[in-house]
Amino acid sequence: MIHITIEDRNGDRQPLEIPEGISLSLMEVLKASDYPIQATCGGMALCATCHVAVLEGADALPPVNDAEGDLLDTLPDADADSRLACQLRVDETMLGAIFRIRAE
Length: 104
Hints:
The protein is of the alpha+beta class and 104 residues long. It has helices at residues 26-32, 66-72; strands spanning 2-7, 13-18, 51-56, 82-84, 98-101. A hairpin with a 5-residue loop joins strand 1 and strand 2. The termini are far apart.
């Protein structure tokens, strides 16, 4: 199991266990777990409605790709810890990471 923590917009943290090898994005896992992620574009890195902050574990994640970086550059509330959940594949690099939901 891959163990991560999700912090909602109120600052409440909940652990989340994800089976290894499920081949889903973090956005898909969050939606399936009933977190308030709109994912309007369906994971194409076009809308930023799956914007998250990586509070812990960012160094282990794959680098921001061009499409993700271009969209994050347009967000007024994006920081150095910002990522799009649709662009993060759930795998062992996420083990122990903490993500804060930022998108409205």
